[in-house]
Amino acid sequence: MANGLRASGVPREELFLTTKLAANFKSYEGAKQAIEGSLQRMALDYIDLLIIHSPQPWDQFGVEDRFFEGNLAAWQALEDAYQAGQIRAIGLSNFQQVDIDNILSACKVKPMVN
Protein backbone atom coordinates (compact mmCIF):
# COMPACT_ATOMS: atom_id res chain seq x y z
CA MET A 1 0.00 0.00 0.00
CA ALA A 2 2.71 2.48 0.93
CA ASN A 3 4.49 1.83 -2.35
CA GLY A 4 1.25 2.58 -4.18
CA LEU A 5 0.87 5.85 -2.26
CA ARG A 6 4.37 6.95 -3.20
CA ALA A 7 4.12 5.72 -6.80
CA SER A 8 0.82 7.53 -7.37
CA GLY A 9 2.51 10.90 -7.53
CA VAL A 10 -0.34 12.36 -5.47
CA PRO A 11 0.91 14.48 -2.57
CA ARG A 12 0.49 12.65 0.75
CA GLU A 13 -1.69 15.41 2.20
CA GLU A 14 -4.22 14.82 -0.60
CA LEU A 15 -4.66 11.13 0.32
CA PHE A 16 -6.66 9.71 3.22
CA LEU A 17 -5.26 6.47 4.59
CA THR A 18 -7.33 4.30 6.94
CA THR A 19 -6.03 1.19 8.64
CA LYS A 20 -7.05 -1.01 11.54
CA LEU A 21 -5.46 -2.16 14.75
CA ALA A 22 -5.78 -5.93 14.61
CA ALA A 23 -8.44 -7.32 16.94
CA ASN A 24 -5.92 -9.34 18.95
CA PHE A 25 -4.13 -6.26 20.37
CA LYS A 26 -5.67 -5.81 23.82
CA SER A 27 -2.77 -4.22 25.71
CA TYR A 28 -1.25 -0.76 25.67
CA GLU A 29 2.22 -1.97 24.74
CA GLY A 30 0.98 -4.32 22.02
CA ALA A 31 -1.18 -1.61 20.46
CA LYS A 32 1.63 0.94 20.67
CA GLN A 33 4.05 -1.43 18.94
CA ALA A 34 1.46 -2.22 16.25
CA ILE A 35 0.91 1.49 15.54
CA GLU A 36 4.63 2.14 15.31
CA GLY A 37 5.06 -0.96 13.13
CA SER A 38 2.35 0.23 10.72
CA LEU A 39 4.00 3.63 10.39
CA GLN A 40 7.41 2.04 9.80
CA ARG A 41 6.20 -0.57 7.30
CA MET A 42 4.39 2.08 5.28
CA ALA A 43 7.20 4.63 5.75
CA LEU A 44 4.66 7.28 6.76
CA ASP A 45 4.77 10.10 9.28
CA TYR A 46 1.09 9.73 10.09
CA ILE A 47 -2.05 7.67 9.47
CA ASP A 48 -5.25 9.58 8.74
CA LEU A 49 -7.61 7.17 10.53
CA LEU A 50 -6.82 4.20 12.73
CA ILE A 51 -9.59 2.07 14.20
CA ILE A 52 -9.67 -0.85 16.60
CA HIS A 53 -10.91 -3.66 14.35
CA SER A 54 -13.04 -5.49 16.91
CA PRO A 55 -13.75 -5.43 20.64
CA GLN A 56 -12.94 -9.13 20.80
CA PRO A 57 -10.05 -11.02 19.20
CA TRP A 58 -11.35 -12.91 16.16
CA ASP A 59 -10.49 -16.29 17.67
CA GLN A 60 -12.71 -15.40 20.65
CA PHE A 61 -15.41 -13.48 18.82
CA GLY A 62 -18.85 -14.05 20.33
CA VAL A 63 -17.59 -15.20 23.74
CA GLU A 64 -18.95 -13.62 26.90
CA ASP A 65 -15.75 -11.66 27.66
CA ARG A 66 -15.99 -8.18 26.11
CA PHE A 67 -12.28 -7.43 26.80
CA PHE A 68 -13.16 -4.11 28.46
CA GLU A 69 -9.76 -3.58 30.12
CA GLY A 70 -7.83 -4.59 27.01
CA ASN A 71 -9.88 -2.27 24.81
CA LEU A 72 -9.28 0.62 27.21
CA ALA A 73 -5.54 -0.09 27.11
CA ALA A 74 -5.53 -0.25 23.31
CA TRP A 75 -7.61 2.94 23.16
CA GLN A 76 -5.06 4.69 25.38
CA ALA A 77 -2.36 3.80 22.87
CA LEU A 78 -4.50 5.25 20.06
CA GLU A 79 -5.10 8.42 22.08
CA ASP A 80 -1.38 8.81 22.78
CA ALA A 81 -0.51 8.36 19.09
CA TYR A 82 -3.28 10.84 18.21
CA GLN A 83 -1.91 13.39 20.68
CA ALA A 84 1.59 12.84 19.22
CA GLY A 85 0.33 13.54 15.69
CA GLN A 86 0.97 10.00 14.45
CA ILE A 87 -2.75 9.48 13.83
CA ARG A 88 -5.14 12.21 12.67
CA ALA A 89 -8.39 10.47 13.70
CA ILE A 90 -9.19 7.42 15.86
CA GLY A 91 -12.20 5.17 15.98
CA LEU A 92 -13.82 1.80 16.47
CA SER A 93 -15.08 -0.97 14.22
CA ASN A 94 -17.60 -3.71 14.98
CA PHE A 95 -18.16 -2.36 18.52
CA GLN A 96 -21.56 -2.85 20.10
CA GLN A 97 -23.11 -0.20 22.37
CA VAL A 98 -21.76 -1.82 25.55
CA ASP A 99 -18.24 -1.73 24.06
CA ILE A 100 -18.60 1.89 22.99
CA ASP A 101 -19.88 2.83 26.45
CA ASN A 102 -16.79 1.21 27.94
CA ILE A 103 -14.51 3.40 25.81
CA LEU A 104 -16.58 6.52 26.51
CA SER A 105 -16.39 5.88 30.26
CA ALA A 106 -12.64 6.47 30.34
CA CYS A 107 -11.50 8.15 27.14
CA LYS A 108 -9.97 11.60 26.82
CA VAL A 109 -10.61 11.62 23.06
CA LYS A 110 -13.99 10.32 21.91
CA PRO A 111 -14.10 7.88 18.99
CA MET A 112 -14.49 9.79 15.75
CA VAL A 113 -16.05 6.87 13.88
CA ASN A 114 -17.63 3.47 14.60
Descriptive overview:
- This is NADP-dependent oxidoreductase domain-containing protein.
- Residues 4-113 form the NADP-dependent oxidoreductase domain.
- InterPro entries: AKR (IPR020471), Aldo/ket_reductase_CS (IPR018170), NAD(P)_OxRdtase_dom_sf (IPR036812), NADP_OxRdtase_dom (IPR023210).
- The chain is elongated.
- It has a three-stranded parallel β-sheet, with helices on one face.
- It has one domain.
- The chain is α/β, with parallel strands linked by helices and 114 residues long.
- It contains four helices and three strands; from the N terminus they run H-E-H-E-H-E-H.
- The longest helix is centred in the middle third of the chain and has 16 residues, at 68-83.
Q: What is the residue-averaged pLDDT? A: 96
The tally of helices reads: 4
Segments where pLDDT lies below 50 for 5+ residues?
none
Multimeric status of the protein: single chain
Distance between the termini: 23 Å
Coarse structural class = alpha/beta
Shape estimate: elongated
Please tell me the total number of domains: 1
Question: What's the story with the biggest beta sheet?
Answer: 3 strands, parallel
* Number of E strands: 3
Percent range of helical residues: 25-40%
Strand content: 5-15%
